[in-house]
Amino acid sequence: MDKRPIGVFDSGLGGLSTVRAMKKLLPNEDIVYFGDTGRVPYGTRSNETVETYAAQDIKFLRSFSCKMIVAACGTVSTAAADVIGGISEPSTGITKPSSKAAVEATKNGVIGVMGTSATVNSGAFDDEIHALNSTAKVISVSCPLLVSLVESNWIDIDDEVTNAAVKRYIEPILKGGADTVILGCTHFPILAPIIQKIAGSDVTLIDSGLEEARYIKAELEKRDMKNDGSHVGTQRFFVSDKTQNFCDVASVLLGEDISEKCEFVDIFKVI
Fold first, then answer.
1. Of 66, 143, 185, 247, which one is the catalytic site residue?
2. What is the three-class DSSP state of 228?
3. Tens digit of pLDDT for each residue in 90-116?
């Protein structure tokens, strides 16, 4: 066993979809989560800015001697892939696990990608998918408003504004004939019930948080770093802005009150 924690970071709340899956698949692992809520969203920033933010987030997590660093953020996974891949610790983003799952799931070879502007502009999902299936058709759509809607807790399945935004964003993907859609930002699985309702039951949604958690589990097992049942996993949460809204949404997503586990951190003082 390696009892050091796993470090997870995101621009805000989205990475909680990865944490939710990790808690189910890896109940014996300690998790340290950093949500950069003071600088969310990342998806509208330049690649240079995203790379700077990612490096700072990783530096903060390294202060906990993490055994693995997880970018639970589609924008970082694509726009700052070199930053993640350049650290000494085992690391991952969402791109490879989600692309692999989509290629395995599609029946007609048409795959949609819902992501932030930075993710879509990077072309990273297109590259990963085509590396696995050169004949696949990829329809990528930038969905910048969805991050703000999640961060604002507008996540109810009947919310009119969120439903309207999802419908507008996913329309070109459905018109293009996609039978599989990658939720290419970890905020988006939080809206999966709305997206599935609008897309229809014939469309398979790829939950980027779940696929990332599956990859983490496989990597820990391969490296003999996974904790066994003798260790009960714990979680600590840090945010770079006020904790209240984060804790409110987290309680819905994680099914527990995390207010006693959540702390504010001034990211500029710790980097």
1. 185
2. coil
3. 999 999 999 999 999 999 999 999 999
